[in-house]
Amino acid sequence: MSLLKKIMPSVGLVLALGLLLIVGCSRNSQSIGVGSSNGSSSVAKIEPRGKAFFSFFDTVSYVYSYAGDDDEHFNECTDGVAAILDEYHKLFDIYYEYSGINNLCTVNKMAGGDPVEVDPKLVEFLLYCKDICELTDGMVDVMMGSVLSIWHDARTSDEKYLPTQDVLDEAALHVGFEFLEIDEANCMVRITDPDASLDVGAIGKGYATEMAARWLEEIGATSYVLNIGGNVRIVGTKPNGDGWVTGIKDPKDPDSSFSLRLELSDCSCVTSGEYERFFTVGGVRYSHIIDPNTLWPAQYFASLSVITKDSGYADALSTALYCIPYEKGLELVQKLGDVQCVWVFHDGEVKYTSGLENLVVR
Fold first, then answer.
1. Within a domain: 133
2. How far from 211 is each of 18, 93, 115, 128, CA to CA, in Å?
């Protein structure tokens, strides 16, 4: 059985996101009924609490608890989540190396040379990425670093510019999993083409989020919400069984308006959009999400949101679906069977899969 099949959720859930109504919930306490021995009930007030971290994946990570847990358990949970995010942040970093770790930066530096011995977690992740690449017919390919690095340089330079098609086409000759050798038994990884490289920006943060959420589940934590740079992973429900109202930002007014609101529980919510990470050249806004077919920023939607159980899966699919037309994307979602999606078009129109109908907050 492939790693993807083992990790993919068996139950279809739902979708969406922006930064959030979930954060808004943290300002309000929740009252739940607590049964007593004589059959009557009292009301216990649960004060939500949260902690922020600023060191992982070049973003802000929030961990919220709605469980009413004591300080010791809350700190155990948040410290554990932070440790997992830190580990994967270092393993997935393509710009910096760390003492005692052979990470993706190390693997990229050794492209065309000898195999690199890496942590088994990195091997497992790369096999997962290979399965995702096959599932999405190449729309999410972590071996696309040669192209993505060109766009990274273009949008981060002091004078923003657009690369030429010839340069992009040449870089695309070095894209593909055929250039990556993975020796699972010996935990060795090798990029065979010296001009090829890994970039896991489309999936790495979501995968790390999922690993942290699974650890919370393993230790019995529930009523937790992780928001890792906009990748939301909900562990369980509120203590009273309700979900959280989660808003998909309106791309035209992301700071104060939502295109859709959904009540979600025990799932992942990931949005890809053009309104937060972009650059402008000649008065035209370009997204940071690159379409593998054109090698240019995708322009089909203002935003696209995915909900499914697995956060890495949701992260990857939100990127893949953002890069293909609505009709083709809807067909793919329907085939997957365990994924829901919201499309927000440039004119403000919102479409979503039928599985979300009962979760829409009117």
1. no
2. 21, 17, 26, 13
∠ CA 124-264-92, nearest 5°, is 25
Q: What is the DSSP string of 77-130?
A: HHHHHHHHHHHHHHHH-SS--BTTB--HHHHHHTTTS--EE--HHHHHHHHHHH
Question: Tell me: the pLDDT tens digits for 166-184?
Answer: 999 999 999 999 999 999 9
Is 14 contained in some domain? yes
Range of the domain at 345: 3-68+224-359
- pLDDT (tens digit, 9 = 90+) per residue, 271-324? 998 777 788 888 888 889 999 999 999 999 999 999 999 999 999 999 999 999
Instruction: Evaluate whether residue 333 is within a structural domain.
Output: yes
Higher pLDDT: 280 or 93? It is 93
Burial class from Cβ neighbours inside 10 Å (0-12, 13-18, 19+) for residue 352 reads buried
In the chain, the number of structural domains is: 1
The CATH number for 38's domain is 3.10.520.10
Token pair listed for 335: 């085939």
Rounded Cα–Cα distance for residues 170 and 151 (Å): 14
pTM to 2 decimal places? 0.86
Where would I find the beta strands (DSSP E) of the chain?
30-35, 41-46, 49-53, 61-65, 116-117, 180-183, 188-191, 224-228, 231-235, 244-249, 258-264, 268-273, 278-281, 284-287, 303-308, 340-344, 350-352
d(CA 333, CA 331) in angstroms, rounded, equals 6
| Contact (Cβ atoms closer than 8 angstroms) between residue 350 and residue 16 | no
**Is residue 11 within 8 Å of 309, Cβ to Cβ?**
yes
Phi-psi region of 307 (alpha: psi -120 to 50; beta: other; left: phi over 0): beta
